[in-house]
């Protein structure tokens, strides 16, 4: 049966990156550089944090710390941007990564923790403004914690041109990446890479090809290891849609959305059985017959 969606917040300029904190859903409004907080008990949506440098993807680590991909070219104070940050409970920000081999990152987009506490993130650049880019590639990176609040950065893909949504399997054996480049002849695929013991990745396997239509933007896990993904738009193809993929890429279900350009999704509520979706600048929710999996809060 098709899922029924309820709009619970918005519209905002460009909503993305929903993340459940145990009591509420946090999501980003990229256009205003804010993190918003939707409380499902009161129904209120308020600004949680501002000055986020057009933050996109959000995620919590196992200890409940909030991390963000800040994608803007410039900080709010005009001194730079394009970094992965941790938003501390006291209101401060800790920069986790902003360079690779001495060159600034492109525009970090989405991120995922694995069971070892390593942080994986995608670093594309969308749009036509590329004169400021210092790297000559758009890759996926892995950040390894060093135990002193610093992180070692490693490039793990060499074949991506616009990596977007990202997940790591619960057993740590597979890296899932949405390759979502726009334009003629650019691949729009759900890819799977084997993760080696040293954290490097092997050759990718294309699990699903969306070309020539809009591919996946964001993804999350259900408790059974299936992928819930946002994809599609009204411009072409089957339209804005939620896909449910088995780990091997087989399409299990599709569910049309009531608005265009879905961006991301996460499970939430105390039972982790409500799916929250950002699309068309709004936050929606639905109650599928599925339970979510999150590293934090524990499923």
What general form does the structure show? globular
- Based on CA atoms alone, the radius of gyration comes out at 17 Å
Q: Residue ranges: pLDDT <50 for 5 or more in a row?
A: none
How many distinct helices? 0
Order of helices and strands: EEEEEEEEEEEEEEEEEEEEEEEEEEE
CATH architecture: 6 Propeller
The CATH homologous superfamily name equals TolB, C-terminal domain
Structural class: mainly beta
Number of domains: 1
What's the end-to-end separation, in Å?
25 Å
Structural write-up:
There is one protein chain. The protein has a single domain (6-293), classed as TolB, C-terminal domain (Neuraminidase). The chain has 299 residues and is an all-beta fold. It has no helices and 27 strands. The protein is 0% helix and 48% strand. The model has no long low-confidence stretch (mean pLDDT 94). The strands form 7 sheets. The chain has a 5-stranded antiparallel β-sheet, with no helix packed on it. A 4-stranded antiparallel β-sheet has the order 1-26-25-24, with no helix packed on it. Strands 2-3-4-5 form a 4-stranded antiparallel β-sheet, with no helix packed on it.
């Amino acid at each position: 049966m098709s899922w029924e969606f309820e709009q619970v917040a918005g519209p905002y300029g460009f909503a993305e990156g929903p993340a459940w904190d145990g009591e509420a859903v946090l999501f980003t409004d990229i256009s205003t550089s804010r993190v918003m907080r939707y409380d499902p008990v009161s129904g209120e949506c308020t600004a949680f944090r501002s000055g986020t440098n057009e933050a996109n993807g959000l995620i919590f680590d196992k200890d409940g710390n909030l991390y963000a991909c800040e994608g803007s070219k410039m900080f709010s104070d005009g001194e730079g941007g394009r970094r992965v940050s941790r938003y501390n409970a006291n209101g401060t920000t800790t920069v986790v990564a902003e360079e690779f081999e001495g060159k600034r990152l492109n525009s970090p987009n989405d991120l995922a923790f694995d069971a070892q506490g390593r942080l994986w993130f995608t670093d594309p650049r969308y749009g036509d403004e590329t004169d400021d880019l210092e790297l000559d590639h758009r890759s996926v990176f892995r950040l390894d914690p060093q135990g002193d609040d610093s992180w070692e950065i490693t490039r793990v893909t060499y074949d991506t041109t616009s990596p977007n949504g990202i997940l790591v399997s619960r057993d740590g054996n597979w890296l899932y990446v949405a390759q979502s480049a726009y334009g003629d002849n650019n691949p729009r695929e759900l890819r799977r890479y084997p993760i080696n013991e040293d954290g490097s990745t092997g050759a990718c396997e294309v699990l699903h090809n969306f070309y020539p239509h809009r591919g996946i933007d964001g993804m999350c896990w259900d408790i059974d290891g299936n992928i819930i993904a946002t994809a599609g738009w009204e411009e072409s193809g089957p339209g804005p849609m939620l896909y449910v993929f088995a780990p091997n890429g087989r399409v299990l279900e599709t569910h049309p959305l009531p608005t265009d350009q879905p961006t991301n999704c996460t499970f939430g509520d105390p039972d982790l059985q409500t799916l929250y979706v950002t699309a068309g600048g709004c936050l929606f929710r639905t109650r599928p017959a599925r339970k979510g999996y999150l590293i934090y809060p524990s499923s």
